[in-house]
């Protein structure tokens, strides 16, 4: 068997086009575009590339760009002041604090300063609570991108055995919640899981977000499974994921590539979340007018 490739670039393009249409309709209705504020602290090379790409894609979708770049030495008070200003700005629909912060600083308290209605990364305790309780809210971009990919490929989820490798707040945990809401039977594996291959071989749908290059091989995968590789690693021989793609492709029915799988979906879902935030705010504001 050679697995069908789930093309994230193609689905991301569809999501971006949908989002651009929604952004244009919002602008038509309200007289102003949705706005995305990106906050970058320090000079981390990878973060700069990610933020530049988010801003470029946002502008291309008709979303106004509000960017703040703070120096490597910016203290918590300075970052908090910027977040408070963006939180109060009615032209800003969504706020994204790019992680990681310099010098391994804990972003926890700062993230909580983002109002839940503008939390387009879905990382605040309030957003994660809404997700856990299956209430409407903004969902983290990477797992919601994975879900969209699975839906586009018509992968059956209700009643399926789903295994998520990884339990981070950014990916693994929200991914498991989203699959549970799709009525999958969900198992979460992590670094203390005793026999990883024994657990992952149960999966009809296997989502791998361990951050370990090429952790998952053919021996971890049930024949006919759908395998989603969230990992991304730069190596001497190019980009690789958490899955040994070539060997798993011989066992799996469907597989996401790296690059071109989950990665493009993350930014597309960020744009979609920004427009959703703008629309929700508009609907909940008195008389539909943005104050
Ligand atoms: P993370 O915070 O480092 O979490 C990794 C998780 O994997 C942890 O829960 C860890 O378990 C578990 N784990 C580590 N080694 C393992 C092993 N040998 N066996 C089983 N589980 C193991 O990483 P993350 O932020 O979730 O990201 C995961 C990967 O996805 C990274 O490669 C990251 O670069 C990538 N990523 C890609 C995108 C995208 O858009 N494509 C977005 C976000 C992240 P413990 O909890 O026990 O430590």
Walk me through the structure.
The longest helix has 23 residues, at 8-30. With 291 residues, the chain is α/β, with parallel strands linked by helices. It is globular, with a radius of gyration of 19 Å. Helix 1 packs parallel to helix 10 (262-284) and helix 6 (141-152) packs across helix 10. The protein has two domains: 31-115, Rossmann fold (3-Layer(aba) Sandwich), CATH 3.40.50.10860; 141-264, Rossmann fold. A six-stranded parallel β-sheet has the order 1-11-8-7-5-6. Strands 3-2-4 form a three-stranded parallel β-sheet, sandwiched between helices. It has ten helices and eleven strands. The N and C termini lie far apart (57 Å). The mean pLDDT is 96. Bound molecules: NADP nicotinamide-adenine-dinucleotide phosphate. NADP nicotinamide-adenine-dinucleotide phosphate binds at residues 142, 165-168, 170-172, 189-193, 196, 209-212, 215, 230-232, 262-263, 266.
List its salient traits.
globular, binds NADP nicotinamide-adenine-dinucleotide phosphate, 10 helices, alpha/beta, Rossmann fold, 2 domains, 3-stranded parallel sheet, 291 residues, 6-stranded parallel sheet, 11 strands
Question: How big a fraction of the residues is strand?
Answer: 15-25%
CATH homologous superfamily grouping of the largest domain: NAD(P)-binding Rossmann-like Domain
Q: How widely separated are the two ends?
A: 57 Å
The coarse overall form would be globular
Tally of distinct domains: 2
Total DSSP helices:
10
Q: Give the SSE string.
A: EHEHEHEHHHEHEHEEEEHEH
Which strand order spans the largest sheet, edge to edge or round the barrel? 1-11-8-7-5-6
CATH topology of the largest domain: Rossmann fold
CATH domain class of the largest domain: Alpha Beta
CATH architecture of the largest domain: 3-Layer(aba) Sandwich
Give me the count of strands.
11
Task: Give the class from helix and strand content and strand pairing.
Answer: alpha/beta
Q: If you average the pLDDT, what whole number results?
A: 96
Determine Rg (CA atoms, Å): 19 Å
Largest sheet at a glance? 6 strands, parallel
